[in-house]
Predict the structure of Protein kinase domain-containing protein.
Amino acid sequence: MISKSNDEVMPSTTPLIVVVVLLLITLASGALVAGQNSTAGGCPTKCGAMDIRYPFGIGDGCSRRGFEIVCEDGGVPFLAAGADTKPIQVTGLSIEKAEARVMLPIAWQCFNSSDVVYSSSNGMVQFNEHGVYRISSTRNHLVVVGCNTMAFTQNQPNAGDDYGYDFFTGCTCYCSSRFHATSGDCSGVGCCQVDIPAGLTDNSMVFYNLSHRSKLQFSPCDYAFLVEKESYSFSTGDLRMNVDRKMPVTLDWAIRDGSLSCSHAKANKSTYACVSDNSDCLDSMNGPGYICSCSTGYEGNPYVPNGCTDINECERKDKYTCYGNCRNKPGSYDCRCPKGRSHSADPYNEPCIPNFPLAAQIVVGVIGGFFIIALVVFITLLRREKRKTKEFFEKNGGPILEKVNNIKLFKKDDLKPILKSGNIIGKGGFGEVYKGHIGETNQPVAVKKPINVNLAKKDQFANEVIIQSRVIHKNIVKLIGCCLEVDIPILVYEFISKGSLEDVLHGSNRLPLNLAQRLHIAAQSAEALAYMHSKTSTTILHGDVKPANILLSDDLLPKISDFGISRLLAIDNEHTMSVIGDMTYMDPIYFQTGLLTDKSDVYSFGVVLLELITRKKASHSDKNNLLKNFLDAYTNGTTVRDFIDEEIAATNHLELLAGIAGMVVQCLSLDVNQRPEMTDIAERLHYMAKKARGI
Ligand SMILES: *[C@@H]1O[C@H](CO)[C@@H](O)[C@H](O)[C@H]1NC(C)=O
Ligand SMILES: *[C@@H]1O[C@H](CO)[C@@H](O)[C@H](O)[C@H]1NC(C)=O
Ligand SMILES: *[C@@H]1O[C@H](CO)[C@@H](O)[C@H](O)[C@H]1NC(C)=O
Ligand SMILES: *[C@@H]1O[C@H](CO)[C@@H](O)[C@H](O)[C@H]1NC(C)=O
């Protein structure tokens, strides 16, 4: 039963042991894997003050093969050397330059008085177990010290051939007494030096045994060593050097697995060392193999994944110059002068030159500023002017006149060429009259431009436009158009060549006129007034009939002008007038009643008629009593013949003259009902004119 129970126990204990063993194996292997791997697994990154970066590393699995570093207590790094040599101290490691700086022992041998070498060392240490290092031929040289000494270095001889060296180099130095050697001078007296070729893999030296017998006092030993060129300077004391002395030497390292060049190395991804993005491979300059380098514009460690990082060049002005605006890019940077403001042939290396010097910028700015202000002022004035123009246009009845197609509306600019002082043909209280030509037909015109007019006269101009727009008659001066874009309208009339009846009768243009001509003028003038009084749709009173307002064309056709104080009876029922015409011709009844009627025009016409036959000037003043004398003569029944102008008095149309005289008297009657209608006057004058012409 017991055995049986044992049997039963056995199977249950066995699996337990298996499980424990398996667990231990798993843990062990796990520990092994963790220990083996490099950066991920807690590899030290420093030894003392020195950074240890891959491919270098401290501890198992922390470095690439051949790049192991030993960190001794106290933080002193050493190259892991062969078992039989002491580790070699490392004083510098550079990934970027692919260099390692180490302290190497010197080679030496000392003679006894029998001229026999009794103690020596060839200096060799095994720092290059895996062949990653070469002595830098550019940074180091060979120095030999002694007063009858010859030493050289060589690369490893080929097996079985004593002289199978690739190279063999050294130098000899001599001195007959201690006083010949000079500190700082290593040119053959007590010290010599020689460059070394690339490819040197160790520091072993070979001496020739030259006699020291006579020099034992001051130079008992030979010394030879590799040393950085700038790190050793000969001193006469070195003729008795401490044989334990170490010399600084720069080593070139490279990835030399299987002596691969870059092109070969890249083919095998599992061993290729340049694992970082943005890294490049460079063939080693010293020995076989290759080194890795971050691409231009990147920095860091190309031997680890993502080790190469972009350089922000803009933050390192000392190394990456830029005189313009700097912008970092992956692997490079942009440098541009501020656009439009400055330029440079090469902003990376040459300063940006402003396109405009500051002074010019200021000048341009100031001028620009003034220009803009001037422009704004100009536009404001232009708009104000335009607004004013429009206001005037509307005030002067423009919108109404626009619909009247027999009157042309001129723009200010249209009349500008005419309104020159050289063109003035008349001047008066009302304004100035200019002669000019207008339109494609070059029609001669008289332009009436008001000047310095008071408020009342302003209205006359507007009034005239409105009246004239309604009267079209061969005996009324034609208003061709006007310009409403000014405060007071400028009026453009047809040009009447001979001037006014006033001028022709009494003034500068005095012309001989026979009775027929005078009657013709009177009849045509009367016809125009009759037309105004009755033929137009609304009665228009002229209000200022006088010789000066009757113009004469070439063929003496009269044309009534100046409707400044005319009245539209239909509109203005009161037709009282604040402005009155020439007192000489003004109806005295009007003065009494203050009421202007068509008979007022008849009275004025009577005076004109009287002047026409007497060629004497009527006047309001008491001294000239033409009217009174004529009327007196007529009422007294005495002959009025004395009053008649001699030019027509001599004719045999006495009957006609008497008729005219009678008409004058009727017109001047103080009983307005006695005064004939204008139509009547016109008819009778036409009849008389025909008779005078003998028809
Ligand atoms: C160890 O490093 C190698 C390359 O150095 C890598 O391929 C491997 O995955 C790493 N192993 C671990 C466990 O991290
Ligand atoms: C010099 O050294 C050799 C070899 O060790 C020895 O035979 C010789 O006696 C020494 N001479 C003197 C003077 O010590
Ligand atoms: C110099 O002398 C030493 C010891 O006597 C000997 O081992 C060595 O081979 C000699 N060197 C040469 C180049 O003869
Ligand atoms: C790459 O290198 C590894 C290790 O040296 C080797 O085992 C493998 O065969 C190589 N692969 C190729 C394709 O050469």
Residues 1-40 have pLDDT under 50 and may be disordered. Residues 187 and 407 are 121 Å apart (CA to CA). The chain has five domains: 34-80, 96-253, 262-309, 398-494, 501-692. Residues 268, 270-271 surround 2-acetamido-2-deoxy-beta-D-glucopyranose (ligand 4) (CB under 6 Å).
